[in-house]
Structure formats: structure tokens, C-alpha cells
Design a protein that fits this description.
This protein has 238 residues and is of the alpha/beta class. Helix content is 39%, strand content 18%. It has nine helices and eight strands.
Length: 238
């Protein structure tokens, strides 16, 4: 059995990206007035610039660009992982972020914070998810357990293992599992099994996994894997 791990929240530095302010309806009205006073040639150039700015947040274009960048840096190395990233709509699993932020290759998307403002749940950065999926070497028809849910990565796994495979995603936080269930259903992956509970015991009824992917936070630099009776071969992508 293969296992791939990512330890989040353990002193890892995060890249911060500044995004331009979204174009508003008022912006468009003002820009259209300015265009009206231009010559025909100037107006055509201005309209192209406005259309380009408006389409820059297109999820489909951002998704294609993300895949291309991940392939360029060789985080994606196989066609099956590329196809999964090209198909699953990441922005649907991160409604709190703009499309540009959701598809930023090196950035996580924080989905929950505690009372002190510390992130307690997030969607891992695309580059890390790609590295983990490549390391796991998943195949069609395999049974996969994901520890630490969110929905997006489970959907990627479901694309790779196909309808004959099994994907079980577990999280101890009901906020996370509720979101995962809702988003997976809305995006066409209702067959992914979402389980609320401690992963050591909660997914025991399914057992016999071909691979386990772990994306959880830990208080220190060490992650203890104590799933009794489950053979383990750990591959770290942290």
C-alpha cells in the first residue's frame, strides 16, 4: 500500500501574491464613456483591453494556465494527473477566494480560522497536490483513503481512479466534511465517500486501501501514523 503525506502548518513559508482589484460594473460604465470619446481605432484597442481584463478571471482559462505551469515545473508528469487537474473546477471548492487566488500555483486557500485568526483548515497549493498524486502513482480501479478533507483533492483522486475505484475522504471537523460533501455533490462527485471522525478508526469499515494520502496539520515536526494493522509505505511530499 502506498501513502503520500503533506504536513501543513509546520513552519512552512507561504508565498503571498497581490491581485488587481476586480473590475466592477461602475468601472465598465466609466470605461464605456471614455471609449465613446475615442477615435474608432483607439476605441477598438480600448475595448480589447477591457475584454481581456474581464476574461482574466475566467476559471476555464485559469485552470488551463495552472495545468500548463504545473507541467512546466514538472509537478505534473503524467497524463492522468494532468487530465484530472484540467477537469476538476478548483474554484467551486474555494468560494471564499477569487478565481485567480484559487488557481495560484504556489498558494493555499484558507477555508477556516480559529478565534485567534490561525488557519485551521485549507486547500493545499496545486503544486503540492500534484506532487502528492504523482508520488502516489494511483491507477484506475484502486481504493484510496484521504486523511484531511476539503473535497477538491478527493475529486482529483476520483478522476484518476475512475468509476471502478473507491475514494474515502476523512476529516475530524464537521465544518470541513459538510463543505466537502456539498461541493463534491455539486460538482459531480457524489460517489466519493465523506466520513466525519478520527481517521484512525472512522474509515475502518472500508479497509484494504491501495493508497493513503495524508494532508493534515500537526503541532510538531513529526506525524505519527498509528493505523493498527494497516501496512504502510510512506512517501512524503511535504
Amino acid at each position: 500500500m502506498r501513502a503520500s503525506t503533506s504536513l501543513s502548518g509546520i513552519g512552512q513559508s507561504q508565498q503571498t501574491v497581490q491581485f488587481a482589484r476586480p473590475v466592477t460594473e461602475v468601472d465598465h460604465r466609466m470605461q464605456n464613456r471614455e471609449v465613446a470619446s475615442l477615435t474608432p481605432t483607439e476605441a477598438n484597442i480600448e475595448r480589447v483591453a477591457i475584454d481581456t481584463l474581464s476574461s482574466s478571471e475566467s476559471p476555464d482559462l485559469l485552470r488551463a494556465d495552472m495545468v500548463a505551469r504545473l507541467q512546466e515545473r514538472e509537478s505534473i508528469r503524467s497524463p492522468q494527473v494532468a487530465e484530472a487537474f484540467a477537469k476538476v473546477p478548483r474554484e467551486r471548492f474555494a468560494p471564499e477566494a477569487s478565481p485567480s487566488a484559487a488557481y495560484a500555483v504556489f498558494d493555499t486557500v484558507v477555508t477556516k480560522r480559529n478565534a485567534t485568526g490561525k488557519a485551521t483548515s485549507s486547500i493545499s497549493a496545486p503544486w503540492l497536490q500534484a506532487e502528492m498524486l504523482e508520488a502516489a502513482q494511483l491507477k484506475p480501479g484502486e481504493r484510496v483513503l484521504e486523511i484531511g478533507s476539503g473535497g477538491y483533492n478527493a475529486a482529483l483522486i476520483a478522476e484518476i481512479v475512475g468509476p471502478e475505484g473507491l475514494v474515502v475522504t476523512v476529516d475530524i471537523d464537521p465544518f470541513v466534511t459538510e463543505r466537502a460533501t456539498r461541493f463534491l455533490t455539486e460538482t459531480g462527485y457524489p460517489h466519493v465517500t465523506v466520513v466525519l471522525g478520527d481517521a484512525e478508526h472512522a474509515a475502518g469499515e472500508f479497509r484494504a486501501y491501495d493508497a493513503i494520502l495524508v494532508t493534515v496539520g500537526a503541532p510538531g515536526p513529526r506525524l505519527e501514523c498509528g493505523m493498527t494493522g494497516w501496512p504502510q509505505r510512506m512517501q512524503s511530499a511535504a
